[in-house]
Each structure stands twice: as C-alpha cells, then as structure tokens.
Amino acid sequence: MNYRYDLTLEETGILALEDLDLLAEYNIETLEQLLGATNGLQNIEIFNEMDNKNHKIDSLLKLVPQIILEKYRRFEDKKTRGLLLDGEEEADLEDDNERE
C-alpha cells in the first residue's frame, strides 16, 4: 500500500476494529489526523490501549515516508490539545495566545 495523505486508518489494514473505534472517539480517522495528533508517531500514548501496539506502530512507520514523518515531527503547535476547558479557562488561553 502506498501512502496518501487522505488514507483512512481502516484502509491501511493495520488497526483492528477496536483500535479504529478508540481513535474515532478522538476524531482520528485518517492517517494524516493520526500523524498530526501524535506528532509524526512520536507521542504514542493512545497506542498503550491497543493490543500488539509495537507491531502496529512499526507497520505505520513503514507506510509513511520519512520526509512526511519529519514534517509532522518538526511542527510545533502552541495550542493545548485534548483538554476540555470551561469558559473561564478557555478565555484565559485565548488571552495568552493573543499576547504571543
């Protein structure tokens, strides 16, 4: 299988249905979304909940060209991910971002 930016995780054939369901809870359904959420498969905590995680990560790493992985690994997002903020915390975060 060749890498495509819009390749769905299901199309890779690497992840089990349970893994796909877990990632879908985080709105991760494509390889591109997974690469973005994990900084090019560096931050792989989500895989701790999967069986055979090392095999799955290795298979995904073989699928994605190194130049694409490096692109995602160099990207620095200053926004906090994965946190649900209440209105006051969200306003504070927006104020911090405006100052930068």
Give an overview in words:
By secondary structure, the protein is mainly α. It is 52% helix and 0% strand. The protein has 6 helices and no strands.
What's a quick, concise take on this entry?
This protein is mainly alpha-helical. Helix content is 52%, strand content 0%. The chain has six helices and no strands.
Largest sheet: none
Show unreliable segments: none
The class by helix and strand makeup works out as mainly alpha
Strand content is under 5%
Number of beta strands? 0
Mean pLDDT across all amino acids: 83
Cα separation of the termini:
42 Å
Computed Rg: 15 Å
Number of helices: 6
> What is the H/E string?
HHHHHH
Q: Helix proportion of residues, in percent?
A: 40-55%
Shape descriptor? globular
Comma- or semicolon-separated keywords:
mainly alpha; globular; 6 helices; 0% strand; 100 residues
List the helices and strands and how they pair.
Blueprint: H1 9-12, H2 17-24, H3 31-37, H4 53-63, H5 66-74, H6 87-99
